[in-house]
């Protein structure tokens, strides 16, 4: 909440509508507070975080960067964790690929004359 006295914070969107306000902007403490909810974490921030997790959990990229001497012991340890890391990587990648920030509309780039 942007009201200095309230400082309400939530991760659940409040769908209450009052007057001409948008959904999700009314503070749940409405009778006591006239403030508005503002985003602290944007969709772009979430996309960047998901992209970072995809980068960190990309085990094949990490293995390709290792020298042959260091690669063999690491591959043995990696074989134990491969299933867990791969499932986490695929799930995060699936969520990230659904996000609109990963898509470019070519009509927005081209100018018609």
UniProtKB/TrEMBL annotation:
Q: Name one Pfam family in it.
A: zf-DNA_Pol
Q: Which InterPro entries match?
A: Pol_alpha_znc_sf, Znf_DNA-dir_DNA_pol_B_alpha
Q: Where is the Zinc finger DNA-directed DNA polymerase family B alpha domain?
A: 1-109
| GO terms under biological process | lagging strand elongation; leading strand elongation; mitotic DNA replication initiation
Query: Gene Ontology terms, cellular component aspect?
Result: alpha DNA polymerase:primase complex
MF term (GO), any: DNA-directed DNA polymerase activity
Q: What is this protein called?
A: Zinc finger DNA-directed DNA polymerase family B alpha domain-containing protein
- Organism for this UniProt entry: Aegilops tauschii subsp. strangulata (Goatgrass)
